[in-house]
Design goal:
This protein has 242 residues and is mainly alpha-helical. It has eight helices and two strands; from the N terminus they run αββααααααα.
């Protein structure tokens, strides 16, 4: 297991800048002076596109086998799950953008803004408070993340809207995001997103041409595409009761 993780860490300088690799050792032995009969590691390989993840996975497989050969043991690498990148539908995105601007930006109270500045200050970033401005649809910087909506978007036209529920600059997967999202700041973001999605659904129901345009873009982008899920076929493995 240590040989494998050493190989993973040596590989970090030889992957694309968009690649992220995380792992956690779940089973590493019971006592320090006894070689365990079984060791287990959970690893995530990430990239902006499915093809990039496939490339990393293709390098991890022989790395796991090589580590097993060096240690004189048996090794397996099992794919449990994975996500496609989101297939953005620009036609639908423009409908969402129009409704987001129609609903209007969020009005934050002085107390909410002060709380946001306190969170930013504690995170070591500039305390500028909440940003209620609706950004331009065009020219947005690519951001990382993962969501199973990506798999849905390659099977049916999928529209989604992103509304900030935390002050800008604070790190994701950290307590400031949870702190802000659990207050009226997060509630206001949720309501704005819900109104935007509801208004867009009404437009799609009322306008056949809009539905056809969304479907036409989806058909063009997925022409010749065959969906192959990362999740293995068959029922998921159920851990045996001890």
């Amino acid at each position: 297991l240590e040989l494998f993780t050493h190989g993973v860490n040596m590989m970090r300088e030889h992957v694309k800048p968009t690649v992220r690799i995380h792992y956690a050792i779940q089973q590493g032995g019971d006592v320090p002076n006894v070689v365990p009969d079984h060791a287990k590691l959970w690893i995530w390989a990430r990239d902006f596109e499915r093809a990039g993840v496939d490339d990393v996975l293709a390098r991890l497989r022989p790395m796991a086998q090589g580590a097993a050969l060096m240690a004189g043991v048996e090794g397996t690498l099992t794919v449990q799950a994975g996500d496609y990148e989101v297939l953005v539908n620009q036609t639908g995105a423009r409908l969402l953008d129009a409704n987001l601007r129609w609903v209007g930006p969020i009005a934050y109270t002085p107390e909410e803004d002060a709380f946001a500045r306190a969170l930013q200050k504690s995170a070591g970033v500039e305390p500028v408070g909440m940003d209620a401005a609706i950004g331009s649809l065009e020219g947005q910087a690519q951001e990382g993340g993962s969501t199973d909506v990506g798999d849905v978007s390659w099977n049916v036209p999928t529209l989604h809207v992103s509304v900030a529920t935390a002050p800008r600059g604070v790190p994701w997967h950290a307590w400031p995001v949870v702190a802000a999202g659990g207050t009226s700041i997060g509630q206001k973001g949720m309501v704005l997103a819900a109104k935007t999605l509801a208004a867009t659904m009404v437009d799609l129901f009322d306008d056949p041409a809009a539905r056809e345009a969304v479907r036409a873009e989806f058909g063009k982008k997925t022409e010749g595409f065959v969906y192959k899920p990362y999740v293995p076929a068959g029922p998921p493995p159920v851990p045996k009761a001890e």
